[in-house]
Amino acid sequence: MTAGSRRKIVLLGMMTKIPVAGAVWGTMHYMVGLRRLGYDPYYVEAHARTPSMLMQHESDDGSALAAAYIDGVMRHFDMQDRWAYHALHDDGRVYGMSDTALNDLYRDAALIINYHGGTVPLPEHTATNRLVYLETDPVDTEIEVYEDRRETIDFLAQHCAFYTWGLNYGQPDCRVPLPKPFDFKPMPPVVVSDLWESPPTERCRRFTTIGNWRQQWREVTFQGEVYHWSKHFEFMKFIDLPRRVEQPFELTLASYEPEDRRMLEEQGWIVSEASAVSSDLDAYRRFVADSRGEFTVAKDQNVRLRSGWFSERSAQYLAAGRPVITQETGFSNALPTGCGLFGFSTMDEILGAVRAINDDYAGHCRRAREIAREWFEYDRVLPQMLSDLGV
Fold first, then answer.
1. Which of 5, 72, 269, 313 could disulfide-link to 264, CB 3.0 to 4.6 Å?
2. Is the full-model pTM beyond 0.85?
3. Tens of pLDDT along 220-232?
4. Where are the alpha helices (DSSP H) in the chain?
């Protein structure tokens, strides 16, 4: 297929809103995967959000910083001519291509994918009825539809199809109110496994993860109960884990206070700064490769409502051949667990998973890589979605 005959697909993203390596890798797996499948993917930001995480002062030219950031990421993957940044938060200037070229791209694209559901659709996004909603954080939107919030319903109605990382949707134990009349189809995050290949070694002793400690917002209330967004609530349930085992556990964190760090270290956790890892794609990949595996929790919203949410970061650990121990959200109804991947709800289940991995580390590493390739690989996940959409 020649470059001129490839079908164009636009991925609407928000890397400059969340300029951290794990999220960027998650985005670029879709871009690389689509390119390898023979499509002509373009990355576009048109979300109207100020790129505050890239700015040090209010006087900084946020649009120029955002455009430079996207350009650097796209060059890393040899896609430097496949992006646009529409500065809707500012003067509306388009970076990376001309206004005319961007509008032509929207008109000609076989699909426009609203990744994260983070872009409020423009008329040019919806004109061809090819805008697809790809939800990476279940629960909030579904509850808003359940509560009949007109703004959310009108937002979703502009899309022609709906996909979610809520892998437990439709199962009897899923308590997320399914957002009728919108038919959300479960679809796992995408990885490109060969980008993560790294031989495991017994010298890797630390189970690690990376993320935010406190995020005191986005709580939701559903049927009289409050459901939290911040993961620190879930970590606190297992705060004495390092005292139960000889295995070292490292939390590489952002959004924490000095007293949080002291408390964690008193409980035996190793705490490190996320910024040193999350600001660089290659440093982040080395961090994953240097880990024995991942130990992490999920948001309370996904745990108690059993959404089946599964993290793109955990999929990246699996792609690197690193076992994952992660809090159960109902994902085990869709994914194989018990070897290479473990879901837990109790401390005893965590301890059992650690023992199992240590008893046959090489075997669990092999199985982790197999799970990534069987369930998350771009050439397994994306063709199904594209086939559903008639592309």
1. 269
2. yes
3. 999 999 999 999 9
4. 21-36, 62-76, 99-108, 123-126, 140-146, 150-156, 232-236, 241-244, 258-266, 275-278, 281-289, 300-305, 312-319, 347-359, 361-371, 378-388
